[in-house]
Design goal:
The chain is of the alpha+beta class. The chain has 3 helices and 8 strands. The strands form 2 sheets. Strands 1-2-3-5-6-8 form a 6-stranded mixed beta sheet. The chain has a two-stranded antiparallel sheet with strand order 4-7.
């Protein structure tokens, strides 16, 4: 699955399974945007960057500086109803890695995570 296919399936997953409003940030000429999608429901709001992982690990060097800066800013606002992080897709299944977990692991010197050990969201096959 390509990155764009993963993004489309994650959008469909949240819209269908969670009846969410999902906004997609188009990639500009440079391909750099703060994150890929924003998901809003009655229960939660997520600011998410989708990362397709062909193997069962996610190397932290795939996180772009602009993504980390935007997540850091949103997290610093202290709004408990907004979560930020990454949806990691692997074999058409979605997993969540929160920004807070990512930062904690990074501070501990970790350079990657095993995708299938993250919070399971569900299958993306439609």
């Amino acid at each position: 699955m390509t990155g764009q296919q993963a993004e489309a399936r994650v959008i469909k997953y949240f819209a269908t399974v969670h009846n969410a409003w999902v906004g997609y940030f188009e990639k500009g000429i440079s391909g750099r945007q703060p994150f890929d999608i924003i998901v809003i429901t009655n229960d939660f709001t997520y600011c998410i960057d989708v990362k397709e992982c062909s193997k069962d690990y996610f190397p932290f060097d795939r996180v772009e500086e602009n993504q980390e800066l935007s997540f850091e800013f949103i997290d610093s606002l202290g709004n408990d109803s907004v979560d930020v992080g990454f949806i990691l897709t692997h074999k058409e299944v979605a997993y969540m890695l929160s920004y807070k977990d990512y930062i904690t692991l990074k501070k501990r010197g970790k350079k990657s995570v095993k995708v299938t050990e993250q919070t399971l969201l569900g299958e993306l096959v439609y």
